[in-house]
Write a structure and sequence with these properties.
The protein is an alpha+beta fold. It is 28% helix and 30% strand. The two termini are 15 Å apart.
Length: 133
């Protein structure tokens, strides 16, 4: 299964504390909802069901080329990976949490996860999930 989440890649936000409780920030909740909605639509399109099998996940985070980049350096920028936030582990966390219960029953089924950051003309996050076995 493959899904594409349009827009700037996001990472999982740190837990917030207030009024004696722990909560997830609004931006993280909204992004997880977006990923989950797109995944649900794709699962319906391919008539797939939640898998119980081990899975491998491939995530490619496409970042926008910085606006300050001169036109003559765009090709050079596209050939180098971004060293910007969010960190790859936070990108993986937000995506895997959003796919929980939609694509796979639980993220403990993920036996392999690869995250790559690249510059691109159109920012988005590509996610490919493959069953193992």
């Amino acid at each position: 299964m493959k899904i594409v989440i349009p827009g700037k890649p996001r990472g999982k936000g740190r837990p917030r504390f207030g009024n004696g409780r722990t909560y997830t920030d609004k931006a993280t909740r909204e992004y997880e909802t977006l990923v989950a909605t797109i995944a649900e639509q794709e699962m319906a399109n391919i008539r797939a069901t939640v898998t119980e099998k081990p899975v491998s996940v491939y995530i490619i985070a496409h970042f926008a080329i910085p606006k300050s980049t001169p036109k003559k350096r765009i090709a050079e920028v596209l050939s180098n990976p971004p060293k910007t936030k969010p960190d790859v582990d936070n990108i993986a966390k937000i995506v895997l949490d959003a796919l929980n219960g939609i694509v796979f029953a639980d993220d403990r089924q993920v036996v392999s996860c690869t995250v790559e950051k690249v510059y691109s003309e159109s920012p988005c996050v590509e996610v490919i999930v493959k069953e193992n076995g």
